[in-house]
């Protein structure tokens, strides 16, 4: 299925417009509505997003261990650094509440939540991530967090007041099943944080060109529309500003980044990708700057609203 630029850009602005098929683009079947199977699309993208292999996991864990050190050092220097999505969530939590943190990772959200509520259950299947989280909890003197060693769909947990999943649903092919289990585990509300792709992103352009699909990975647009199609009318808090933009020292580094996102291992498309990067990336401050930026959205709904 091909996503024309106009539809892709309309979708990014929040309009749930369906993509056109190849036949529609060629002028066939005019007047026949084209719909998107959002669950199927998420499943396809999640399959591409899954990080496999012990080496890949070890590299990811070590990267996040460094991030954890930076977070704690920054928090010590500048307590209360703004995180609009997390701050919104914290504003809705009460001291007597229990919270289920799904895919807790290194505890980026777990730690501040634990300081606000009575108890947190952190579900984290990766042993390296749990190790980093345990190190952080011990060093910070936090004792009201229970860790569960299991993937979310296999985890056995009791009911909590609130269930959250902050950027932890991307490797789950069945997002609706993931969310329905969240709902069964939450008495009051569910929160789901997802990344938002840039409307003018280079990766989207390349993905459309070489994979016939504008979306390169699971994201807010697909997730929001999937939930909407299932009758889950989530409210949304969107980060107003891009948090961080990518940059690479060389075009060769940018090429490797693009290939990772596209899931391309061979050199068959290298020249065409490099031509696109040469046209779209701007050289500034000694590095090639991408228009693609990091931004997130928080979907949330109370249990009596579904």
Structure description:
This protein has 306 residues and is α/β, with parallel strands linked by helices. The chain has one domain: Rossmann fold (3-Layer(aba) Sandwich). Helix content is 42%, strand content 19%. The protein contains 12 helices and 10 strands. It has helices at residues 5-12, 22-25, 38-49, 54-77, 84-91, 110-114, 127-140, 175-185, 202-211, 220-229, 251-262, 270-280, and strands at 98-102, 119-123, 145-148, 160-166, 186-195, 235-238, 244-248, 282-284, 287-294, 296-302. The strands form 2 sheets. The chain has a 7-stranded mixed sheet. The protein has a 3-stranded antiparallel sheet with strand order 7-9-8. Helix 8 (175-185) links the parallel strand 4 (160-166) and strand 5. Helix 3 packs antiparallel against helix 10 (220-229), helix 4 runs parallel beside helix 7 (127-140) and helix 11 crosses helix 12 (270-280). The chain is globular, with a radius of gyration of 20 Å. The model is unreliable at 1-29 (pLDDT under 50).
Topology (elements, then pairings):
Layout: H1 5-12, H2 22-25, H3 38-49, H4 54-77, H5 84-91, E1 98-102, H6 110-114, E2 119-123, H7 127-140, E3 145-148, E4 160-166, H8 175-185, E5 186-195, H9 202-211, H10 220-229, E6 235-238, E7 244-248, H11 251-262, H12 270-280, E8 282-284, E9 287-294, E10 296-302
Parallel strand pairs: 1-2, 1-4, 2-3, 4-5
Antiparallel strand pairs: 5-10, 6-10, 7-9, 8-9
Note the main attributes of this structure.
Rossmann fold, alpha/beta, 12 helices, globular, 3-stranded antiparallel β-sheet, 306 residues, disordered N terminus, 7-stranded mixed β-sheet
């Amino acid at each position: 299925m091909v996503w024309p630029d106009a539809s892709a850009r309309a979708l990014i602005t929040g309009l749930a417009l369906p993509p056109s098929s190849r036949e529609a683009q060629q002028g066939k079947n005019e007047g026949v509505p084209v719909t998107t199977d959002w669950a199927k699309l998420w499943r396809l993208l999640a399959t591409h997003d899954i990080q496999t292999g012990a080496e890949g996991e070890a590299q990811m864990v070590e990267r996040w261990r460094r991030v954890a050190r930076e977070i704690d050092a920054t928090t010590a220097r500048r307590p209360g650094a703004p995180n609009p999505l997390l701050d919104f969530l914290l504003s809705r939590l009460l001291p007597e509440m229990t919270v289920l943190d799904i895919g807790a990772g290194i505890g980026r959200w777990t730690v501040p939540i634990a300081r606000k509520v009575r108890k947190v259950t952190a579900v984290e299947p990766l042993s390296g991530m749990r190790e980093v989280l345990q190190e952080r909890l011990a060093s910070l003197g936090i004792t009201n967090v229970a860790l569960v060693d299991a993937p979310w769909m296999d985890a056995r947990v009791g009911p909590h007041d609130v269930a959250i999943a902050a950027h932890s649903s991307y490797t789950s092919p069945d997002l609706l099943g993931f969310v329905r289990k969240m709902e069964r585990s939450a008495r009051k509300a569910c929160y789901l944080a997802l990344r938002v792709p840039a409307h003018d992103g280079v990766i989207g352009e390349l993905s459309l060109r070489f994979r016939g699909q504008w979306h390169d990975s699971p994201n807010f647009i697909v997730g929001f529309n999937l939930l909407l199609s299932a009758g889950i009318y989530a409210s949304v808090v969107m980060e107003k500003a891009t948090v961080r933009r990518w940059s690479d020292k060389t075009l060769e580094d940018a090429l490797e980044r693009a290939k990772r996102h596209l899931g391309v291992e061979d050199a068959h498309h290298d020249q065409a990708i490099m031509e696109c990067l040469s046209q779209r990336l701007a050289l500034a401050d000694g590095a090639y700057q991408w228009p693609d930026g990091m931004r997130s959205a928080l979907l949330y709904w109370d249990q009596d609203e579904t």
